[in-house]
## 1
Amino acid sequence: MTEPRWLTDDEREAWLRLMAVTMLLPNRLEQQLKRDAGLSHFEYYVLAMISECADRSLALTELASRTNSSLSRLSHVIARLEAQGLLTRAASPRDGRASIATLTDAGWAKVLASAPGHVEEVRSVVFDALSARQVSQLSDICGRMLATLDPHHRLLGLG
Amino acid sequence: MTEPRWLTDDEREAWLRLMAVTMLLPNRLEQQLKRDAGLSHFEYYVLAMISECADRSLALTELASRTNSSLSRLSHVIARLEAQGLLTRAASPRDGRASIATLTDAGWAKVLASAPGHVEEVRSVVFDALSARQVSQLSDICGRMLATLDPHHRLLGLG
DNA sequence: CGGTTTTAGTTGAAACGTCAAGTTAGCGGT
DNA sequence: ACCGCTAACTTGACGTTTCAACTAAAACCG
């Protein structure tokens, strides 16, 4: 085996910081949502994804793609959310295998009530600290990384 | 309650991408380390942090800060790593409450063996996709976010 | 000193995520 | 129409993380 290509000092610095962000940011969002809405970030994200679809409905496989979760994990979470009355599951009329999750009025209300606090948190942690130019740089940089991490754009909507 | 400050289109785009990265990147690292070293990313990070200290030793509270974990989580993980013979726990001579974790030779060897593959993965996902200028931008941007996320620099060494 | 508070860590139970196995429905070829 | 194969989940067991309660040592303080 060959000598590994170690990181330069600049790369190492950038890496440690990126690492710190990926460790701290999810925690931060988690805490805010748990405290103010009683939802985990993943639960919120699931509800938010469904809420943006026509009829507030989405098939589980598609939902799993967009939330970067296994079908198994999603199935467990959907069961919990259903038990809380935030959504319902129904068989697809088109495909007997598929389940379609639909937000209830309570689920819709939950999203409406939770979104402002969540956005405020995102803004205060990320965007209040960055210039418009930096926002654009960040977008480009993440786009580059996603070319490797998510070559088929499974997460960003257009499956 | 007042109307929330929603995100602009550019901010929204940047946010979705950053989100995608923070969801996908940990997964990627996890898989590589699990496959090639039989360690979770957190376990690897714990061992790596200790390995960089004098005497390959570090007190648990300090380690918890640097790995962004609760003491409880760390305690469980340290117990598992100790059971695998990768490190040992000992009471601090200075402070009777403190435990100090020290890498064994096997633990040190594990870090040495695992690091190259891990660095290669980091390089292939992050740095191969970025120009030198973008690396510097990323570093700045993350630094800005960390001013809010980690104001006391708990993660980046100089506690 | 002696009592209170704070810090460091451990432990066990509950919650959550992952993994492997199973079920049912569509699909492709013959 | 039938057989095998794949896709879309579901389920239960297992491992990990979190949470709350606990112990013990140090620090503070009058």
## 2
Amino acid sequence: MANSIEANCLLCMQQSDIFRKLNDTELHSINSCRVSIKYHQGEILFKQGSPCHDFVCITQGLVKLYIESESEKRIIIGFAKPIDYIFVPGAFTDKRHHFSAVALEETTACLVGADVFQQILEMNSSFAGAFLTKISEQAIRMFEQLSSLTHKQMPGRLADVLLCLSQKIYNANPFVTSLSRQDIADMSGMTKESAIRILKTFKDDNLIRTEGDLIELLNIPMLETISRNG
Amino acid sequence: MANSIEANCLLCMQQSDIFRKLNDTELHSINSCRVSIKYHQGEILFKQGSPCHDFVCITQGLVKLYIESESEKRIIIGFAKPIDYIFVPGAFTDKRHHFSAVALEETTACLVGADVFQQILEMNSSFAGAFLTKISEQAIRMFEQLSSLTHKQMPGRLADVLLCLSQKIYNANPFVTSLSRQDIADMSGMTKESAIRILKTFKDDNLIRTEGDLIELLNIPMLETISRNG
DNA sequence: CAAACCAGGTGACATATATCAACCAGTAAA
DNA sequence: TTTACTGGTTGATATATGTCACCTGGTTTG
């Protein structure tokens, strides 16, 4: 068992830009307090508003991150897939989660106590540097999302979402997704009905093809144009 | 002159959560390469898309930070006032600015080479920790803005903006602002006309009072209710 | 001085989008 | 088998919001 854990941590180290910066001691100290947990589809990893004790690193599966407002509406702000750790800003401020995370598929995640993680951040400056880079990328993505959601209208927003899913999340063109239409709507800031309607117009125009959970982008240049024109 | 610069840096150190973490050597190395610049109202500190060489710290005045999309529309994502340094995510990734900064009033800013700043980040872990905390707070604010802009309708969004201006930016209740109606609209994700209209309904309901550039919140509880109900 | 210009402001109108209700197919439960 | 239930889908309708055109008063500019 201890062996398989080692192997697992080493694997993460090889695959992740940021864990690569850890030395043996640090790797060991993370390893010794880390807990690996399996989540089923739909299960919550952590909930907005709850106290945050741990850093979460996804080793298998896919997780959606979303904000919920009082009005029951949700916005999906991102995803985590292997090997991503989830940046939890509350860990550095009020020790609360400011968004929720739920497994879209069978998912395994490693939990590491926030204190251990923060200690290593303090000790290892190149690790901290990689961490900063990652946070910065996320901030930039956030700007783009903000801009897309507030300035584009529905076709543009949905085109953004489809391109993002294919190119950043699934890295495949016909891709099979575990996202519901509601999830797609939550990504693009509209209602489920509207999302379905726009998807239909895209299908009618031969921009995409859908078959159950499969989505294929047939005319990417056109989708990019739609995205640009808002 | 050298003396006044010292005094200025020391002042910043006393007033800022993050610069307080610097030791004498670090303070000196920042001081020795720092440039203080005065900007007039409306002048650009840096422009979205341009290369970023420096970290910017505001020592006097007020600066608005905004994203511009191809469609000429803008979103104000925040402000910087004394003593704030501006977190430029591009400095850790692609060395480009991802938003623009423009002075709303007479403003003085200190520019420090990004390399110097990053060196100190690497050396001084408690400085880096304070930096991380600040970035995290900004990320959390971003979540709230995203949620407000996508889920609330205009009165709720404008209430958010007015409360934010009074409580976080100006820290005063009748406050005099250098923001135009267009700026207020850019903060709340609507057109200038819509912003003016909602402001008028607020005035008619005695929630606020405006007189030129002065805005007074007359019924804060009600504004908070409007904000909550979206 | 007049001319031009700008930000603030208002009204009429068009439209993007949400809401509501209903229907359907597949699947789980009884 | 029937029932309920879920997620996807569609249509009719209401409404929030943007667009456009215009007016105002103050300020700059020639």
## 3
Amino acid sequence: MDVVSPDLNSILPDEIMDTEAIAMEEDPPNEPPAPSVQSEPEPAQVPMEIEVSEIVSLCPATAPTQKTQALTTSTTTDSTLCSISSGTQLIVTSASSAGLKPVASSTTQSSSAVVGQGLPKLSAPLTLPANHQLILSKVAADGKSPGTTVLKQEGQKLLVTGLSKSGQPLVLALPHTWSKPATSQGTGDGKAQPTQFKVVTTGAKPVIGVQAVTSTSQLLGSSTSLQAQQLKTVQITKKTPVSTAGPMITKLIITKALNSKGLTGQAAVQAPMVPGRVLSQTTPLTPPRSIAVGEAVSTPQNISSSSKVAISPLKSPSKLTVVSVASQPPNSPQKSMTLPINVALGQQILTVQQTSTTSPVKAGTSQSTAQAVKPVQTVAIGGTPQFKTIIPLATPPNVQQIQVPGSRFHYVRLVTATTGGSTQHTASPSTNTNPSIQPGKPMMMNTAAVRMSVPIVPAQTVKQVVPKPMTSAAQVVTTSQTQQRLIMPATPLPQIQPNLTNLPPGTVLAPAPGAGNMGYAVLPAQYVTQIPQSAFVTLASSSGFSAPTSIQTQARLPLNGLSAPDTTSRPRKPCNCTKSQCLKLYCDCFANGEFCNNCNCVNCFNNLDHESERLKAIKACLDRNPVAFKPKIGKGKEGESDRRHSKGCNCKKSGCLKNYCECYEAKIMCSSICKCVGCKNFEESPERKTLMHLADAAEVRVQQQTAAKTKLSSQISDLLTRTTPAITSGGGNTESLINLHTKAPPTGSL
DNA sequence: GAGTTTGAAACT
DNA sequence: CAGTTTCAAACTC
């Protein structure tokens, strides 16, 4: 079976991608006792950052709870009440093209969910746990499979899964880490760390960007696409409501730019939102497409129409409002969505806004009257909408469905229409001005060579410009990409159970008992973020989600949660597996939850083409060792000094002073749990100190050389510029000159 | 680059 | 759980 038994859910380590999750232990937030829907956790006290395993499932089959205060004003025929635990409100409204019906959010503090027409068959209740996981998944409209749109945000994760009308799933996964931007740069309040996710697709090249922003009010990325065909921006801002009752706002806006007519989406996006605002930059040429949330299909005419999903969890009464306004031709396929929330990939704008504010939402506050003509509408719940995330979903033409033989996953390839032709490569890099955001960097995926990893180097694929001040300033992300593809496996996500994060990417979980047939897949950020290797740093599945203390950490969690030093910019080494098919833990790629990409392996099955085998292998590994995919190096409370290997090493001949030793490799001391013989990897070991000094010296040497090269290069270039062009023309010797100089610096100085 | 060494992972 | 085998990385030459 490809499917992991439900039991795994409990097994899933919280830190699968995050070794640093351990650090979170410090403040055991008031964890909602039970994920039970009826329990109402106090949102205010639960910081977003906390990795609460709880997941909010929209319209789960389970019995709804807390319907009491739900207020549904949607005129849609199919409205579903979703129970939201912890008083969160969830409102989902979709308006057909014919008539957009405003969705009113219940003012009551209790959670309420409203489902608009666009979401047919939404009989299942929506449950929104206090934790901030939001899962939107849309199921294919084939009619057989229920459609679901799930936004999952676990502290640092955001998953967006959707299936296009054609049944093409779209999944966006954001790692937890994103939600935890570097606090250092942020407000400084460790607890209040808003996270922003940006996904941007532009032009022929869809770009997906994710940003995590510390400040609550921040701008989500905007992307400019030359062709403006697709624009996706997802922004999630988390702010833990502390005593001050800081608002927690999470907005997700998915906008799809219509080829010709769409326009309003842009306007809405650009409209400054206070405190946070989202800027979407789209080329004027092609306005963004209408937003369709729910199954609504936006007719070309409805370009202006936009559907928004606003989710705003309020402290005590957290509210979630999802409004989809899409004009859909009656004929539009995939109208029947069984899932609570349907997001039409094509031409839809989804706005999810999460705000934790004390002020209750007032009914009718949602202004999103689904009028096709109108630009994107934002629904302000519990206050003014502060953050917007705009995710332009690929229009059907832009979405390619990929079928993997034997794979249970639906893969969607988002292809931006290239002006010229195929765009396989993530061409234009995007720059992210704010490094701190990197965790959420936009990621790009290449269909072929896909290494799932988070780019360490900012700016390579997606250009993001974010104002440094994480605090309140809005962040703007601009992406100009030519060719980008996104491949994401999507599966209906009826419910997500806690600890999913432990599962390796691509893991498919069997439906929980009583949850119906719907299982869900774990999508590591890596799925979403595939970038040219050169540009990115591999993100260990678990590590990436951990709350990185520094920007660098965000990029990758090294194997063992090593700290930043290693993570700086080094892509994972390619593996050389020959016999394991890269489906055993021998393979580093596999062990880290990554697909092989640009590796030297033989007969590799660790790729999308062998998803079923891969899933089996994952399951097998988990069977052998439930924590197989957890980082081996845990982080001590005090920091690195306390980090140690979870199992300890068993070295016998290396003295634990070679990289054969996992402890040494992780740059940590052996501990009492190690079973090594002749260990020299302890604090006082002279051998170790010697090695360390040598290593340091070598490192310094390298740095010096690098600096020298850089300096010489700059000097030479400067010299050349000063000299007449004649010299430049004859620059054949330039390189040799440089090389000559570069060698000059004495390497042995140290 | 080929061959050896090493220890984790996998297997019995 | 212990012993053995397999495997791929680390290392040496």
